[in-house]
Input
Amino acid sequence: MKKIFVVLAVFMFSSSLVFAQKEAKPNENRTVVYTFFINVVPDNFQFPLIGFANYAHGDHNNLQAGFINSTKGKTNGAQFGYVNTSVGGVNGYQGAFINVCGNDLNGVQTGFVNAVASKTNGAQFGFVNIGGNDVDGAQFGFVNASAGKVDGIQTGYVNATADSLDGIQVGFVNVTGKDTDGAQIGFVNRTRKLDGFQCGFVNVADTVESGVPLAFISIVRKGGYRAFGYYADEYTPLNFSFRIGIKNLYTSFNYSVLLNQESISSYGFGVGSILPLSKKFFLNPELSFQNTASDFLSFQSRTVFNFSLGYDVTDNLHISLGPAISRTHTINVVEPIEAFNWFGTGISVNSKIKPGFRIGVNYSIF
Output
């Protein structure tokens, strides 16, 4: 049996084809090595390369399958291996631990690291995906980066494009170097100019033109809305707030002192909008959530929707007044004393809905 394996091995090795071939260029001879282990072939070699290491001096329009696959020209086919490189470009598929395309990619790369030196017209699937120029397609990985524009989708933990985004980024951190005409959805979103949509915990934009940033904290450097406020309602005259975002959509952070047998502090969060009616008048709807808790078993929550009419005293000073409706839910906490006792209705033993009012003053800073 051993003799049979030895004979087969010798036969396979000796069956390797090694010969000299004239190429199109005059006075140039190039040796073709075509074996089961190493393949070295000239431009436009028409046969598949299957071996440990495969190297094409020019374009290759067929299959490369090996540990290392390299094409000096364009790859018009498929590369399967541990490391795939193509200097001229890829029109097809690269599947390896490391895939490198030296020019345009028109196809798919799947691997741990995928890199394209020029444009990507297709998709990259890997842990790290890099586009050296524009990406017209999709990048799916832990880290996705493009040195040019992205016209498509980036999905990963970190998504970044040095130019503009005309598509969508979904990840923990999304960064666009220029304009975003699409959507960024993640924990932290950053763009220069927003003409689309941001949804996250923290949104940062230099300017917002026709877009909407929705987040717990939205920071707009130019044309953003930041205001300190004071307001009073039927429960207490001592409420303070800080608003941040844009006038069309802002978030507010509230601090209140409830009227009770003793002073109790309460903290809250809200979202609202300033809708202009004229040069001086505006509507100011706002939904806020307030919580007071002494321990896990004693708390009160209050949800309030108010719809106020506002007036711009100056460019920075604004006043507002309007009706409100609130829902309170109380567990083992002394009910706050209302400044005005409005008629309400109970919806359970601990919950009730009551109408009210809100009057406020806000001073905006830019």
Q: What stands out?
A: The longest strand covers residues 281-295.
